[in-house]
Amino acid sequence: MMVRTQSQVSSRPLGIDTSRVLAMSTAVALHLLAGGLLLIPLSHRAVPQPPPEPRWVMPITIPTAPPPPLVFPVTVRFTPKTHTPPKTVPVPVQVPTPLINQTPVVDSATVALPAADTAMDSAPTIAAPSGPIEAGQLQYLSSPAPSYPVAALRAGQQGTVLLRVLVGTDGRPAEVSVQTSSGHRALDLAARSQVLRSWRFQPAMQNGQAVQAYGLVPVSFSLN
């Protein structure tokens, strides 16, 4: 007799457990993700960055002020010029020689008195001088010293000039000429101009009358 053994078949229906599959899939995914994260540093190589291109910078020249020049202090000393008053030129004054009356002395004892009518006819007539006389030295009334010429003063010139002066009857010089030069034209001209313009003399007298007379006048210029 054949005996058939029949397997017991579960009465539960066959099917897929979705929750279990989901859980397993999630676990596998997490493991893959974790393994991928661990492999990333090994497989990833850092790409070297190219060096930055050098930037060209335009040079700018800043003008610098030149150093100030050295200034040395200069002291200027001003020496005022001392005004030197003009030196007084000594004018030699000489006492004029008194004029000697040339009228002869008549002895009354030896001269016979003529008659009254003949006395008037025989009386001598005093004639006026026909021209200037030579008086030699003249008597000064006013003789201001001449100014020292500037050019002669700077050149250190000095000397004495002798002038020949024609004095009129009013005591004023009518003519002045150089008798003896001082050796310097400037001094001669200064003396002649001053005497002719400013000097006054005592007129020469002859027979009680003022007459024209020539005389010599020395004028000295000295730096001492």
Helix content: 10-25%
Low-pLDDT stretches are 1-10, 69-80, 93-121
For the biggest β-sheet, the strand order reads 1-8-3-4
Q: Can you identify the CATH class of the domain at 133-221?
A: Alpha Beta
Order of helices and strands: HHEEHEEHEEEE
Number of strands: 8
Could you give the distance between the termini?
196 Å
Organism: Xanthomonas dyei
Keywords: Cell inner membrane, Cell membrane, Membrane, Protein transport, Transmembrane, Transmembrane helix, Transport
Subcellular location: Cell inner membrane
Domain TonB C-terminal: 133-224
Kindly describe this structure.
- It is a single-pass membrane protein.
- With 224 residues, the chain is α+β, with helices and mostly antiparallel strands.
- It has a domain at 133-221: TolA/TonB C-terminal domain, CATH 3.30.2420.10.
- The protein is built from four helices and eight strands.
- The strands form three sheets. Strands 1-8-3-4 form a four-stranded mixed β-sheet, with helices on one face.
- It starts with 17 loop residues before the first helix and ends with a strand.
- The model is unreliable at 1-10, 69-80 and 93-121 (pLDDT under 50).
